[in-house]
Write a structure and sequence with these properties.
This protein is of the alpha/beta class. Helix content is 34%, strand content 23%. The longest helix has 23 residues.
Length: 466
């Protein structure tokens, strides 16, 4: 049967010469690995089902404002995996970034500066002095630990060390988890949290600063990568938009190519899948390609976080800060992002863009009435915090994301427990990149880190074919 399928497809070849690499998906992960391969002299063809690059980071223009598909931010600024890829490609000068550093907590009508380093914890007046000392006793061992040691904590929930703290002290962990993971501490492992604290430790070369593209729209990063792929590739590499891969063809346990939605067969020595692996293995392959044990293991990774967000356009600036974390159970909004305060490029003159967001259940994210209820609650939060908010509101745009992957998923399903980059024992020449694969960090930075880890594996495989 497999031979018949392959023989029939050979007659429909749409490219006379094999592509060295085919990439499925033009999100940050797919574009990162494609750019690294092209930089290594390996031509690629990237297939993207949408009409633009960026994947889950794609943005849109709505009433002259640039709205991100969710709020994305570059963690650890120029120490991030994304920036590391730009440096490898020698195009970091093309990425103009704004530092996101004016961050605060809000509690009981007062604002408190978000600590930029371990030392700032001592001045965090949100919590009592005795609890600041407790906080330091927790954070210092994490900040000076090692990646290897942190892996042993991956099955331990972060709440193990926070459950006995008072509400104000726990709010520090709430804010860090929202900023670093877009999730709540209940879903975070101690290991992943520790790796975040390590990367933010300035005494080990880290930074707690964040970055955002100066020209607005986080998919600016994807656009720069895609331009570089086609420019460096000198027409040997291409990104095909509006082109969906329907099947990945495997024969004799090796990749042979892909079939696009128009029925064309594109032969390839190497196929790289850049969207959630647990979706790909069920959607893109003939039954029997993978054994049942492997499929069952990968399907366990299908744990997602849902988010409700509301964009607000205002006629006046209501705060000078860039990010505010409301503290306590009285607030529905877990994060408020003053995007126009980060860069004016996202809004027309005289208007200001604000985004409020909170994690929620998948059930609530799928019900219009629940989305309205949560959106109205976050709107009420802003009205309580800012006296001029209601009078300055021009429009609001609520939305819900049901496929926002929680990078850490849940304690015990993080870091090396995620999808491996290659499955040679199952299929040779098949690779996976993105935030559902082995990597650390959140979202786009996790996807970029995955590409950095996978790149040498792909090069090694292609060399073995020569």
């Amino acid at each position: 049967m497999e031979d018949d399928i392959y023989s029939n497809l050979i007659s429909k070849v749409c490219m006379p010469i094999k592509c060295a690499c085919t990439v499925v998906g033009a999100g940050i992960g797919g574009l990162s690995i494609a750019a690294l391969l092209v930089h290594s002299g390996i031509p690629v063809t990237v297939f993207e089902k949408s009409d633009k690059v960026g994947g889950r980071t794609s943005s849109m223009v709505f009433r002259n404002h640039i709205l991100d598909n969710g709020f994305h931010i570059m963690p650890f600024y120029k120490k991030s995996a994304i920036y590391g890829i730009f440096k490898k490609l020698e195009i970091e000068s093309n990425l103009k970034l704004i530092k996101v550093k004016n961050i605060a907590f809000y509690d009981r009508s007062k604002f408190y500066n978000y600590p930029k380093g371990i030392g700032d914890i001592l001045n965090l007046k949100l919590v009592s002095f005795s609890n600041r000392i407790k906080l330091l006793k927790i954070l210092l061992p994490l900040a000076f630990s090692s990646i290897k040691k942190s892996e042993r904590w991956d099955s331990i929930p972060l709440t193990r060390i926070t459950k006995d703290l008072d509400q104000d002290t726990r709010s520090f962990f709430d804010a860090v988890c929202m900023l670093a993971f877009a999730d709540v501490p209940d879903h975070i492992s101690l290991g992943e949290f520790a790796r975040t604290i390590m990367r933010a430790n300035p005494l080990r070369g880290g930074t707690s600063e964040f970055g955002y593209p100066q020209n607005g729209g986080y998919d600016t990063i994807a656009k720069i990568l895609s331009h570089n792929i086609e420019k460096v590739g000198e027409m040997n590499s291409i990104i095909k938009l509006n082109s969906r891969v329907q099947k990945i063809i495997v024969k004799d346990r090796s990749v042979k190519g892909v079939v696009t939605s128009d029925g064309a067969f594109v032969p390839s020595d190497c196929v790289i899948v850049s969207y959630p692996a647990y979706l790909a293995i069920n959607d893109l392959f003939e039954q029997g390609t993978f054994d049942h044990e492997f499929i069952a293991k990968v399907n366990k990774l299908n744990v997602t976080t849902s988010v409700v967000e509301v964009h607000f356009a205002l006629s006046k600036k209501i705060d000078e800060r860039q990010v505010v974390f409301p503290v306590g159970n009285d607030f529905t909004a877990k994060g408020i992002f003053f995007i126009s305060n980060i860069t004016r490029s996202v809004s027309p003159k005289g208007e200001h863009l604000v985004l409020a967001g909170t994690p929620t259940s998948s059930e609530d994210a799928g019900k219009p009435e629940s989305i309205r209820r949560i959106s109205n609650a976050m709107k009420s939060d802003l009205e309580k915090m800012y006296p001029h908010f209601k009078a300055s509101l021009i429009w609001e745009r609520p939305m819900a994301w049901q496929l926002v992957e929680s990078v850490v998923k849940k304690p015990g399903v993080v870091w090396k427990q995620k999808m491996p980059h290659e499955v040679n024992e199952q299929v040779k020449g098949l690779f996976f990149v993105g935030d559902s694969t082995v990597s650390y960090g959140i979202g786009t930075d996790s996807a970029a880190h995955s590409a950095l880890l996978c790149h040498p594996k792909i090069r090694s495989y292609l060399s073995s074919l020569r």
